[in-house]
Design brief:
Length: about 450
């Protein structure tokens, strides 16, 4: 049984996890860095432990300090949130050897899906289509060039261990290939500790469509529908919605099945996300990667299904069977999430500082997941996500209307935020028509 959960994270996701733990009657322990001592997650948890200085390496990634915090507080389980240690299989093994339950999939699943080359191989065994590309790691630039010519330009060189939109280089011509390849593999080595790279066909006009899966430890794999996360900047998501608009019903059904097949192929046993590239106007989609954690954008799925994804994740970690079947998962209406970052809306440069005014929207169909409050200081040390504004309405047009209204209500002073960017996006006619793609911002400049 899980009774006391240590949340190895900060910011909005720590707050969000604490809320569900409360509803489940579980005790909570927050960890924090020195600079986060006044953070909302610290105030909300039943207990808190300072694990180190501001840099993540000294605190939120400081495994010995986190394990000590578990011991001191007698926590029996750990929720990693997203980022930080959430996809670190060695950490999961350490938790297990300390008798602490990790709220997430097995370390084997994390290891397998954390290597994008291995992940491609594994899901192909489950007959899931992958983005056309190399079978394994590419030995050197010359071999890479041959392969790239075979695939056809443009191509994308990707780090096997990459993540968070990092470790990728798009190459448009053979002349630019060798340089890009060498940069990609040396960057991969320094950023991720593994210099393996592979090559995929690069789709200029693709959409990022992903499927939320949920699997228990008894082999049952279900899906909770799809999300579109095509509105991105530098391969990082800015707006997400569920369901993904303008997808033929048969393609959607096949994608749901492919996601479940991918999860089943690796004996997945938690909540997770299978990401695909979908080529608009066709029936083709391709596996990109699987994220073996809760994702930033999970609330849009919660809004259309009424299922608390974190609650199910905790129940699965406790060894419980899924308490519903696929037929019971019903989709209702449309949900949109915008990420409010402390950034300049024009340049997207981080904007740390102290929040003076903080007025957040409310009303029918509006959810705000955030850790900010008036007087809160946004540190320069971590990612700039201040919170997520999520709306739910009967259909996509109504959801856009509701998002416009909710965005009008936001007033945050003291730091620059991306609120204005989202206000513009919600009046963009292409977005309104659901004509989204991962190169949307390059094409339209919102
Ligand atoms: P990460 O693990 O860093 O998130 P992903 O493989 O999920 O990397 O890719 C992130 C984003 O990069 C995708 O959502 C998409 O916008 C873009 N991308 C990745 N691979 C391709 C590709 N082959 N063609 C077009 N866009 C791609």
């Amino acid at each position: 049984m899980i009774n006391k959960v240590l949340i190895a994270n900060r910011g909005e996701i720590a707050v969000r996890i604490i809320r569900t733990c409360r509803e489940m009657g579980l005790r909570t322990v927050a960890i924090h860095s020195t600079i986060d001592k006044d953070s909302m997650h610290v105030r909300m948890a039943d207990q808190s432990v300072c694990v180190g200085g501001p840099p993540s390496s000294e605190s939120y990634l400081n495994v010995p300090a986190i394990l000590s915090a578990i011991e001191i507080t007698d926590a029996d389980s750990i929720h990693p949130g997203y980022g930080f240690l959430s996809e670190n299989s060695a950490f999961v093994e350490k938790c297990e050897s300390h008798g602490v339950r990790f709220i997430g999939p097995s370390s084997e699943c994390i290891r397998l899906m954390g290597d994008k080359i291995e992940a491609r191989r594994a899901v192909q065994k489950g007959k899931v289509p992958v983005v056309p590309g190399t079978e394994g790691a590419v030995a050197d630039a010359e071999e890479g060039l041959k392969i790239a010519k075979g695939i056809g330009f443009p191509v994308i060189v990707k780090a096997a261990a990459g993540g968070g939109g990092r470790g990728m280089k798009v190459v448009h011509s053979p002349a630019a290939f060798v340089n890009a390849f060498l940069t990609a593999s040396s960057e991969a080595g320094s950023a991720f500790g593994v210099s393996d790279v592979y090559i995929e066909k690069y789709f200029e006009e693709a959409r990022h469509v992903e499927v939320q899966v949920i699997a228990d430890k008894f082999g049952t794999v279900l899906h909770l529908g799809d999300r579109d996360c095509s509105i991105q900047r530098r391969h990082q998501k800015l707006i997400e919605e569920a369901p993904a608009p303008n997808i033929p019903s048969r393609v959607r059904q096949r994608m749901w099945k492919a996601a479940c097949d991918a999860a089943a192929a690796v004996k997945y046993n938690s909540v997770g996300t299978v990401e695909f590239l979908y080529v608009p106007g066709t029936t083709e989609f391709y596996f990109l990667e699987m994220n073996t954690r809760i994702q930033v954008e999970h609330p849009v799925t919660e809004m259309i299904t009424g299922i608390d994804v974190v609650k199910e994740q905790i129940r699965i970690a406790e060894g419980k069977k899924l308490r519903f079947d696929q037929k019971k998962v019903q989709f209702r209406g449309h949900a949109i999430e915008v990420r409010i970052n402390a950034e300049d809306p024009e340049t997207f440069m981080p904007s740390p500082g102290t929040i003076s005014t903080c007025l957040l929207p409310g009303g029918c169909g509006v959810r705000v997941d955030t850790h900010i409050y008036p007087g809160y200081t946004v540190p320069p040390t971590y990612d700039s996500l201040l919170g997520k504004l999520i709306v739910h309405a009967e259909d996509r047009n109504a959801a856009i209307q509701r998002m416009r209204r909710a965005l009008e209500e936001i007033k945050i002073d003291g730091v620059k935020t991306t609120t204005d960017f989202h206000r513009k996006m919600m009046t963009n006619s292409e977005f309104a028509a659901g004509r989204v793609s991962t190169n949307f911002l390059e094409k339209h400049r919102a």
